[in-house]
Design brief:
The protein is of the alpha/beta class. It has eight helices and ten strands.
Length: 259
């Protein structure tokens, strides 16, 4: 009888070991796609579809993301997972916007609230509250603080004036990296850890100087792949999402880059 009980106990322990091993393997193999959006407009010319999407199209994308079981997380969540083993949702994904257009506040933010989804907005600090570049207005600091206060939007750096970082001298590069970080931290009352390279352009020097400036996560543009735990030691890959991409095409793209 005692022997039989011992066998049962050993069997249970063995089964739990196997189960835990499977869970660990699945967690360690987590892949996180990052979606990159830009401007939202009610209508746009076909030549601008690469960086523009309508509110209705974006809403369909959010519905598709939800219906497929993906759960948007922040870069902070990703960093906590990579550095400290924080548990993530079963199907994590990151939604990000570049440039800080007013349309992000007017259209994306209400939709994110309606879906209760997180997103990151990388802003160009020299353009906050202006319409000086590309003829498109940018949201101001008050609107940025409102979005951040919701707990759904994370404001991070897209440098100070959106220059190609790999072509700058050291002084100019330092200014682009550090001034942007300083202004966001000053105006938002938060720590800035994430940098998105303008045009996706960088080199080893840019990466090293950004690290020294205090950025713990850096993002490039590759339009292929997703990010794993160890990806935090290099620039994260992002997938550009255009306005001519249907919700079905979006899901197909995400799945393609998870395998």
């Amino acid at each position: 009888m005692v022997i039989l009980m011992l066998k049962k106990v050993l069997f249970i322990i063995f089964a739990l070991f196997l189960f835990c091993g499977v869970v660990f393997a699945e967690g360690d193999g987590v892949k996180i796609p990052v979606l990159m959006y830009h401007h939202i407009a009610t209508e746009y010319e076909s030549k601008n579809a690469l960086v523009t999407i309508t509110p209705d199209e974006f809403n369909l994308h959010l519905w598709a993301i939800r219906n497929e079981g993906y759960e948007p997380i922040s870069f902070g969540d990703y960093e906590e997972y990579a550095q400290n083993g924080k548990q993530l949702p079963a199907k994590p994904i990151i939604i990000a916007f570049d440039d800080g257009y007013l349309s992000n506040y007017e259209y994306a933010y209400p939709l994110l609230k309606a879906h209760n989804m997180k997103a990151t907005i990388f802003i160009i600090t020299s353009l906050v509250g202006t319409a000086e570049k590309w003829g498109i207005p940018h949201f101001d600091w008050q609107q940025a603080r409102e979005m951040e206060a919701s707990g759904l939007v994370d404001i991070e750096s897209h440098t100070h004036s959106h220059r190609e970082l790999d072509k700058l001298d050291e002084a100019s590069l330092q200014r682009e990296l550090r001034l942007s970080k300083y202004l966001i931290e000053k105006n938002m009352g938060k720590k800035v850890n994430v940098l998105a390279y303008p045009f996706g352009m960088y080199n080893n020097n840019v990466f090293s100087m950004a690290q020294r400036a205090g950025y713990t996560i850096q993002c490039k543009v590759s339009n292929a792949g997703s990010n794993k735990k160890e990806s935090i030691t290099a620039p994260l890959t992002r997938l550009n999402i255009s306005g001519n991409m249907t919700d079905k095409a979006l899901i197909k793209l995400i799945k393609k880059n998870l395998y």
